[in-house]
Amino acid sequence: MTSRPNGEPLVRLSGVNKWFGELHVLQDIDLDIARGEVVVVIGPSGSGKSTLCRTINRLEPIEKGEITIDGERLPEEGKQLARLRADVGMVFQSFNLFAHKTILENVTLGPLKVRKQSKGDAEKRARELLERVGVTAQADKYPAQLSGGQQQRVAIARALAMDPKVMLFDEPTSALDPEMINEVLDVMTSLAREGMTMVVVTHEMGFARRAANRVVFMDGGRIVETAEPETFFTNPQSPRAQDFLSKILNH
Amino acid sequence: MRITRYAAGFAAAGLLLAGCASEAGNQAEEAPETTAEVEEVEFPEGSTMAEIVEAGELRVGTKIDQPGFGLANTAGEPEGFDVEMAKIIAAKMGLSEDQITFTETVSANREPFLVEDRVDIVVATYTINDKRKELIDFAGPYYEAGQDIMVAAGNPENIEGPDDLAGKSVCSVEGSTPAENIRTNYPEAELVLYDAYSKCADDLRNGNVAAVTTDNVILTGFVAGAPDAFELVGNPFTEEPYGIGVQKGEDEFRDFINDVLEEAYEDGTWAAAWDSTAGAITGTEAPEPPSVDRY
Amino acid sequence: MSFLAENFPLIRDAFLTTLSLAVVSGICALILGTVLAAMRVSPVPALRGLATFYVELFRNTPLTVVFFFLAFGIVYVDLQFPSRFITAVAALSLYTAAFVCEALRSGINAVPAGQAEAARALGLDFRQSLTTVVLPQAFRTVVPPLGNVWIALAKNTSIAAGFAVADLTALLQRLSNSAADELALVFVAVVAGYLVITLPSAWAISVLERRLAIVR
Description:
The complex is a heterotrimer.
Chain A: E1 9-20, E2 23-34, E3 38-42, H1 49-55, E4 64-69, E5 72-73, H2 79-85, E6 88-91, H3 103-113, H4 119-133, H5 148-160, E7 166-170, H6 178-193, E8 197-201, H7 205-211, E9 214-219, E10 222-227, H8 229-234, H9 239-249
Parallel strand pairs in A: 3-8, 3-9, 6-7, 7-8
Antiparallel strand pairs in A: 1-2, 1-4, 4-5, 9-10
Chain B: E1 2-4, H1 9-17, H2 25-29, H3 48-55, E2 58-62, E3 65-66, E4 70-72, E5 78-79, H4 81-92, E6 100-104, H5 110-115, E7 121-122, H6 130-133, E8 136-145, E9 147-152, E10 169-173, H7 177-185, E11 190-194, H8 197-206, E12 211-215, H9 216-225, E13 230-232, E14 240-247, H10 251-267, H11 269-276, H12 278-282
Helix pairs in contact in B: 4-10, 4-11
Chain C: H1 2-6, H2 8-40, H3 45-59, H4 63-73, H5 84-110, H6 113-121, H7 126-141, H8 143-156, H9 168-178, H10 183-212
């Protein structure tokens, strides 16, 4: 798990600042994510970790600084940005499956509309992915007919169908009932093992220990501490990280 | 002045829908001066006049949707040239305005109302014709209307009469008698039908129609308002002599009304009635009164 | 009843005129209203402003005034529609589009923001996410309000009668004078004409509503 890939960072954030009105939600963020690296972002609520995740595919525009993906600067809203987003998979807290489309259609939509794949190819690949995340039997159902865990696994399959260079997970298990959390984490863990580059915002410390190469701890819109998981969890350096860990690990 | 309505609800609603009240504004605002002075008179025993005087009530059928002739004002009382004619006749019988009972008569029920003795006279833009004379009798005429044509100033299309309308667009109001006349007798003309003559005038001004047709009294008003834009062809192609309907065989009564009309022509009350009603709307002087037809 | 039989060609033509006014204007208004709704939710502020201006202008102007302007106003800037029917279609479409836009916009707003975000995150551009994800869901929630717009449009066609279009209401005006004694029958025929257009639509709308309902 600790094999460190080399080369240029796949995702680079440098001097990133963002405000929501008066609120300075991201302050001077510098973060490089290497190809194949799994970065877990943790921090108290309101620390800016979700916002950070959403700036990487520009669902949240930034006011200052620069974000590059695979050496390419994030463009302004438009066709260019859409093309770049296609290479960045995203999994949301609330799944956001397309309510009017079947599970299979949810997974094939991107490949058909953006990648311009043939219907046959897209469906074949979609069924493979659905099998991989374990929801093959639900292919012709609508999202509302599935459990939360199933929906989130479909959402992962939907993102994977685009063959993304990097996957963003914005609190993927926060909206799930406890018994469904593991089925989603298992899929994510196996993805990490296969070498997918991942940015995961989560409270799941077990997943961070098991799958992350690096843990980024955020508080008050800043990156406070970055470390390997074992180091971070056993020997946090900053008082705020110590405080945060003492609160959640005592649960 | 009292007014009773015999008209069925449907008919009243229909008239409202037909938008007839659209030109009512001007007239309703100021009630015309009364042009008739009440006189004391004696009538031969047993005559219709004597009976009416005895009853103390002259029952008059009139229209309430004809601007300038018979149009209900905001208080619901009819005003117009026809109404003034009724007042002149009442005055010569020694009856005051309060002793006139107006009843709305739409085109279709004018003869029935006379035949059934619901009214004594009908003054309601009532064109004299032989078919009607089989059922009732007419005094008058007291006014000579006729369908005419209005064109753009200078008459660029050289329209001199209805036959020249063939292949040309001519504007009128849907549901009106002039429109039906064109539809029936001049089918070559291309009819454009709005719900108000003012829109026809706009279309004529814009060059979208070649002509506007309806009763000359209405067209005269438009020409008076915009002499640079419009002109009247001045060749009425229908004769609409307006008469006063009385019950069949009431020759004595008819003679009396004819006398009253001729007196009104002489002493200026007829012209004064015109000036305060139709003339006030159209901005035209009183025409030469038609000679009464004592058939 | 023989009166209705005699005047059947008149009634039929008037009905067809009213029907085609409603259908043609309805299609134009749906297209224009959809474009306007897209503009109102677009990321470009100028487009949003333009669409908002349009909607407020036409939603707050009486339809008769719109008719009047198109029939008699635009000649002053040397514009003119080729026929009075087209003038009426233009007035009805321009006016109704504002209401279609607002119905659609409320539908778009009812689609959770996450749906559009997920579409954008997949790499769909603005137009694609609108047409494949947001609008199809918006249309379902707007079937009832759009149905009301359609019924209002069908009845609003009657304004055209005042602007030289021989529709059902013009027929009523015509026959209420020339056939005053048959007025009750004329009314029945005209009202039936409108009902034939609006009642099946109301029924179709409720069927459509049930069929398109999505589970959330």
